[in-house]
Amino acid sequence: MLFLSGCNATSDNRIRFRKNYRFIEFSGRYVKAILTEGEDHITQEFYARKGDGWQKIAGSFHSPRKFPDEGVQLYNYRSDSLHRFLISDLLKEMDIESRSDSEITIRLTGSQGRNTFEEFLHLSFRDRYFHFTIKASLKEQIPKIDYLLSAFTFNLDHAPHFVHTPGLKYDNEDSHQNRFRLLPGKDQVIGDRAYHSPAVVLQDNGMFTALVPDLDAINKYAVLSPDARRKTDIDRNEFSVPLIPEKYTMPTGLDLNVKSGITAQPVFAFGFMDNIIAHHIHYQRTTDTGMIRTLASGNLRYEFDLFAQADAEEYRGFRQVTAYQWKKFGHRLLTDHAHLALPFAEYFRIVDSVTLHPSRNKGIDEPVKGYKNHGSWIEFNLGKLPAGGYRSSIESWNDVIHNSPFWNNARDASGFWFWGNQLNRTDLTDKAERIINFCLSSPRNRHGLFATLYNAGTKKWGLQFSDPPHGRNEFFLRQSKSYDIPTMSKTGAHLVDFYLRCVPDKRIINYLRPYADWLITSIDDSGTLPSYVSEDMAPSGILLHSAQPAASMWLLADMFNATGEEKYKKAAVRIAGYLEREILPTQNWIDMEQYFSCGSKPIEFVKDYWQDQPARGTLANIWACEGFARLFEATGDRKYLKDGECCLDYLSFYQCCWEPHYIYTAYPFGGFSVDNSDNATYLDARQAETVKPFIWYGKMLGRQDFLERGVAAARASVVLLNLPQHKANDIYKYTNIYPYGLGPENIDHEAHPQSAMRTNPGWGEGSGVFTGLAEAYRELGGGYVDFSKGIMVGVNGISIENAKVTGDTISLKIRNLLAGLNMPWGKPYATDLVFEGLRDSSYRIIINNTDQGLIRTGH
To answer: What share of the chain has pLDDT > 90, as a percent?
Structure first.
């Protein structure tokens, strides 16, 4: 057998390859591919280095000639070979397209009828992934496809230990939702409405693979379709925005099946395919001809990366994916795109002028009888204490002031205090104090458990806004017969944060101490504690083994940081142990939102059958990021820093790291989704709560991507303000029923262009200004550079393109991102720059080659 070879005999830094007429093998430092021509197709195998040898990680999937009736019919391309194109079964010939010492590209070709197909498989020497480019040329006069897919198998005969995709699949029987026209889970895929940071990730011990779509290619090679993206089982409503035909392109889709009925190995795929939207949110495909779509062009192209690793850190291989996505897609958008149209202080001024003053619009923040009209803000006396806070925006609930897992006045108090000090506004620091007084006036039981909801109309407190222990798995109650432990702990943690970072009001610690002491007694031997306790103090088993104890870890760690009392630290460590054993390995972020909100399902539902993926949320993940940070501060133990970093890396899958061309209601970059059921949402208000942990970990670890993600989340938190500048600059062009300065809590909630409901200013424009922007500006100023760690980021309307220290001179290159807009910000504005990692000295500042004078660092 004759082989042509290039095995880099003189250097280990070159691509190795071997070739004969039916075989190609090539490898870099970390990965290897073997391609073999058979009678019907080319078999592709992908390996990763393990010690001195290689381990097979993945391979091309090939559909059996006799397709099993019980198999997932998506992969039965022979059922309609005129419109279903499974790339791995169509490629017949191969050759080297190009190669150099450090790179190689293999071209594989095939045809079906008059249609031709190409796969370009590229490897750079140091990469841990292969880059795929798929091209198709369809020769019909009116080109049509059902799908064009690349499919693979993971080299394992069972479901892997760790699985991630952007969404769940499940049957009506599993969910008990009884949604109309919901197809079985085996006929569901992952549609591109869930593409915030899309990937299919599989890991078992050290064996790891990930399929990561090339998001730039999705935008660059979009093909219009007159009938794609049109099918949905969710009716349009008052929140729907206009259909823009030029945005309706042929979608791509992801798929994973660990129980395909075809092979014991997990099967995963990516390519062009449409879906039918079902509540809430499922991406369905029929097995008949109903999925065929017409294309404006027969030339199709998509690209993706396939990662392969044999020695990945157990359960944590996914971390390289989110870091890679931000470096490849997110960094460029943050530094090159204006994102916002105004300086931060202007956003504050607008929200201050709108939400804290009477509304001029009927049906928006209608006044509450017996109270002075302050718009979204309501204030009153509780005993002798002046109190107040943001109230609900829901018309039937608009007298409710509330600390919930979502909107939370205790959280925003720090933002009111920050802006008050920043702008020398005593009325704002007064509002912060009113919020603190409101929280500390909440009635407690003898164990320190407290109410979180106040009905201003009746002047009655409610324990919380749901009541799962008594069968009321719903939101927006006015009274409950149970306490919500995670919500009390989250609220308490925000109060302690106010104590530590704003005003050391000893009333806060005294108020929370009985509750924190009760928490200590409630932690069981495994390290978990109840999520709900009835008003008679009977603990509930509902969500006992969820991720929700993270909120209590956060509170207890900060109680130690505030008091120095060891009992609080020890209790937080016990909860941390539970999270490390039961939650972090599989990122099992189960929280109440998966069960009681839009994607509601029974408590018994733990994971989907078809993907073996847990029902994962983001709320408890955010709480854990905060909790591990505070526990690291309490203990100095770097394992908690590493735990929190891992949590944040996984949370990053829910942040939009690009600008999808088909998401046009508003500019989605940097914003967040909800969970892997309610997965079509963009720009959800929870993004404001991620700003603080992203920035804290970014500064602590010297991680540029975290720092930038925090700034992107802060900016995204005010994108959904109805402003003429946002419309003119295509930031939030398709507003709905909410007037100037206000906005919804998210967009595209039901997987079509849609500007959703406003539930509370504290889960919208208020949290955007008083949490998102406040946290970014407090920690980073208008721009931030740490010279010792080599990290920097522009924050307030600027991009810092370069920063260096030469002797006693600091040279900066800064670009004004607000100047080149369609409607630019034309006024001068001042913003702070924050420098860290400098020795104590005097420095001359040079910005854009202009001398700005001297500064003095240190004390």
So the answer is: 94
Q: Cβ(575)–Cβ(549) under 8 Å?
A: yes
Cα of 572 vs its chain's centroid, Å: 26
DSSP assignment of 270-323, as one string? EEEE--EEETTTEEE--SSGGG-EE-S-SEEEEEEEEEEESSPPTT-TTHHHHH
Q: Does position 11 have pLDDT exceeding 70, yes or no?
A: no
Q: What confidence tens digit (pLDDT) does each residue in 104-135 have? A: 999 999 999 999 999 999 999 999 999 999 99
The Cα 639–Cα 576 span in angstroms is 10
* Spatial separation of the C-alpha atoms in residues 380 and 745, rounded to whole Å: 26
User: Please, what is the average pLDDT of the chain?
Assistant: 96
**SS3 state of residue 556:** helix
| The 129-137 sheet, strands edge to edge | 91-99, 103-112, 115-124, 129-137, 299-309, 207-213, 200-204, 162-164
Closest among 237, 209, 409, 206 to 313, alpha carbons compared? 206
Q: How open is the CA angle 207-213-219, to the nearest 5 degrees? A: 170
Up-side HSE of residue 679: CA atoms within 13 Å toward CB?
27
Cα 18 from chain centroid (whole Å): 42
| 361-381 confidence digits (pLDDT tens) | 999 999 999 999 999 999 999
What phi and psi, each to the nearest 5 degrees, are found at residue 473? -80, 70
Band the pLDDT of 1: cuts 50, 70, 90. Answer: very low
So what's the pLDDT on residue 3? 37
> How far apart are alpha carbons 427 and 32 in whole angstroms?
65
CA distance 164 to 644: 19
Name residues whose C-beta falls within 8 Å of residue 132's C-beta, 6 or more positions apart in sequence: 119, 120, 121, 122, 150, 303, 304, 305, 306
List, for residues 670-704, the tens digit of each pLDDT value: 999 999 999 999 999 999 999 999 999 999 999 99
C-alpha neighbours within 13 Å on the C-beta side of residue 549: 29
Pairing of strands 833-836, 783-786: parallel
Q: CA 496, CA 487: separation in Å to the nearest integer?
A: 14
pLDDT at 9: 33
Q: Who contacts 240 (Cβ-Cβ below 8 Å, separation ≥6)?
A: 752, 753, 754
Sign of the Cα torsion 213, 219, 223, 228 reads: positive
Select from 634, 688, 781 the least CA-distant residue to 414.
688
Sign, Cα dihedral of 391, 392, 397, 403: negative
Average pLDDT on 306-330 reads 98
Please tell me whether the peptide bond between 281 and the residue prior to it is cis, using omega within 30 degrees of 0.
Answer: yes
For residue range 465-482, what is the model confidence (pLDDT) as tens digits? 999 999 999 999 999 999
| CA pair distance 51, 850, nearest whole angstrom | 54
| CA nearest to 266, candidates 42, 36, 57 | 57
Q: Where are the beta strands (DSSP E) in 506-625?
A: 532-534
Residues 6+ apart with CB under 8 A from 109: 91, 92, 93, 94, 116, 117, 118, 119
> Residue 74, Cα to own-chain centre: how many angstroms?
28
Cα–Cα nearest to 623, from 748, 490, 787, 521: 490
Angle at 580 between CA 575 and CA 585, to 5 degrees: 145
The pLDDT of residue 5 is above 50: no
Residue indicated by tokens 């990290």: 791
CB atoms near residue 302 (< 10 Å): 23
Residue found by looking up tokens 């522009």 in the block: 794
Q: What is the pLDDT of residue 12?
A: 74
pLDDT over threshold 80, residue 591: yes
Q: What is the pLDDT of residues 704-741, one digit of tens each?
A: 999 999 999 999 999 999 999 999 999 999 998 999 99
Q: Are 377 and 355 in contact (CB under 8 A)?
A: yes
